[in-house]
Amino acid sequence: MAVMTVREALRDALREQLKDDRVFIIGEDIGYYGSTYGVTAGFLEEYGPDKIRDAPIAEAGIVGIGVGAAMLGMRPICEIMSVNFSLLAFDQIINHAAKLHYMFGGQIQCPMVLRTTNGWRNLSATHSQSFDSMFAYVPGLKVVAPATPADMKALFTAAMEDPDPVIFIEHTLMYGAKGEVPDDYEARIGESRVHRPGKDVTIVTYSRPVHLCTEVAEKLAQEEGIECEIIDLRTIRPMDMSKALESFRKTGRAVVVSEEWESHGVQAEIAARLYEHGFDHLDAPIARVGFKEVPFPYATNLENQVVVTPERITEAIRSVLM
User: Fold this and answer.
1) Catalytic residue among 59, 79, 170, 229
2) In principle, which of 23, 112, 128, 235 could form an S-S bond with 120, CB 3.0–4.6 Å?
């Protein structure tokens, strides 16, 4: 079984897809520069400019080209190097990609994948944002945010096979994370999984916080005998709550962890569904851990006060166990 980084798993997945004549990648700096995070480094020399298309700084144009190509039967991969820049393409994403299938009575499909990144570290207020909930709010889009190299590869493959537009969110602080990637591993969009079994408290999360929660869970298990069950949603639209509810009915206590501002976001939706469908099993108020609700500061010491940390996750777990 191969051990890969997230970056290597994604490169493998992209190579598999580029064998299809319908597939091309379009984005800023993906060719000559090799992309901001190195995922497509060398691809221009390997596949040529027809398959690897460098685009100017024009996010609405990148997504618009992807939408048009998908309507005509191609399988475009649009890369927006940071989710912060996707704001410039929201009209193409929300008013076109997400709605074409419905507005034309099912006669037109838009099978495109939009790769983009969440992330932070001294990037300041306009470059450290997370818009998971803004994408997940829109019917017609599917939103995938994997946590492991195996899921990155498998879910990207699933995204490319999906007839609908898929927003594929990668975390910039995870590209070097390693994990086993089985040759025959498959994963489906809209299917959560139990990342770590436990009996005392349910943690519902996705993307990078899966690893933060695992670090906390292992420490609490070793030092205090507290067993946390971690549910990795993997996809936030559609959102599969079956594993989370099954776990919550067992533990009666839940903590929701995600890298987004704490109110009006995905974690608010998760908490609402736990209350709605698991109220009779509730033994403590559900706790949430996300970004503190301020624009991101640049200075490291201030930034560390805003982000999700193992210490804040631990504090939330203790609060629901009291």
Assistant:
1) 59
2) 128
pLDDT band, very low/low/confident/very high, at 1 (cuts 50, 70, 90): confident
pLDDT the model gives residue 34: 85
| Residue 179 buriedness (CB in 10 A; 0-12 / 13-18 / 19+) | middle
Residue 94 CB-half CA count within 13 A: 11
Question: CA torsion, points 69, 11, 155, 141, in degrees to nearest 10?
Answer: -30
Q: In this predicted structure, what is the pLDDT of residue 36? A: 87
Residue 50 burial (CB count, 10 A): 8
Mean pLDDT of 99-106: 96
Active site residue 127: yes
Greatest pairwise CA separation for the chain in angstroms: 60
Report the alpha-carbon distance of residue 166 to residue 232 in Å, rounded: 19
Phi, psi of 170 (to 5 degrees): -110, 150
Pairing relationship of beta strands 142-144 and 75-80 according to DSSP bridges: unpaired
- Catalytic residue among 16, 28, 45, 127, which? 127
Can 59 be counted among the known catalytic residues?
yes
